[in-house]
Amino acid sequence: MINRRKFISASAVSSLAALIGKKAWASEAPAIVKGKPVVISTWDAGLAANKGAWEILGKSGRALDAVEAGVRVTEDSLNCCVGLGANPDRDGFVTLDACIMDENFNCGSVAFLERIKHPISVARRVMEKTPHVMLVGSGAQQFAVAEGFPLEEQKLSLDAQRSYEEWLKKSEYKPVINIENKGNASTSFAPAKLANGEWNHDTIGMVAMDANGNLSGSCTTSGMGFKMRGRLGDSPIIGAGLYVDNEVGACTATGQGEDVIRVSGSHTVVELMRQGLSPEAACKKAIERIVRIKKDKIKDIQVAFLALNKKGQVGAFAIHKGFSYAIKSNDVEKLVNAKSWTS
Ligand code: GLY
Q1: Does 3 reside within a domain?
Q2: Which one of 24, 196, 213, 253 has the largest count of C-beta atoms within 10 Å of its C-beta?
Q3: Which protein residue has the closest C-alpha to ligand 1 atom 4?
């Protein structure tokens, strides 16, 4: 069956206007959030995730605990674009990737993990309980079970099942940029508004600074819907989907993981901030690097970076319009439309 499936690239730029039109409640970013703590996360689902993180940050808790709790909210939503309710790979299995990093360069990651509801928490256990950074596949699952994580039933959610059946009719890769935002703030978990036989990225990345000024980050994903079995994107890769340097700042990525990996995206953004660039300028420079590499293929690719520096400045930049991120601090709680390379 795999042989007759084709990689097809297709632009969906025309759908952007409709997507953006729904987001009248989004606004441009504040450059600096006053005071600590602060949490930012990718896409509309970040609003709910930030609330989860705030349960900890708002009580002077540690950023690491907050970024784990925050994205667990998204993983918990079985109808969401992240976690076990998400679209499967080409062979009909949901496989999950996640990573986490704290203020001391401790990091943990799991990839190609099946039947475990909270990959982010398994990633944290890898970080805290093993001498390793990354566990994958059946080994990651074995570790998770040994750590007491329940092995969930291998069953697609109803909506993922519908999407998969639809996708099987053509079995094409059909990138639809910004598909993460087909819902809105209140219905972004509504699966009917997510992929129906479409290819998507399904990621939440979060970075936070706690009341002590310490940074941490998390990233969790089901990866591209209907991906090749075994495919990993950037999200479980420290330096690509996420990077934290407590002296400088933190960054997370979303979008087409292959192109984030190509430029070690999140690490690149942090290094650019180290050189003095603001978070937005650093994200923009990293995006420009991808644009230079991909040339005319760029019209089919969405990548966005979201960063926070040690001063509490927040910034993001995307290839295409339509990327939003959620921000929460003591005085701000909102969704922001990021600037982009294409207008
Ligand atoms: N950015 C998520 C992925 O490409 O899998």
Answers
A1: no
A2: 253
A3: 257
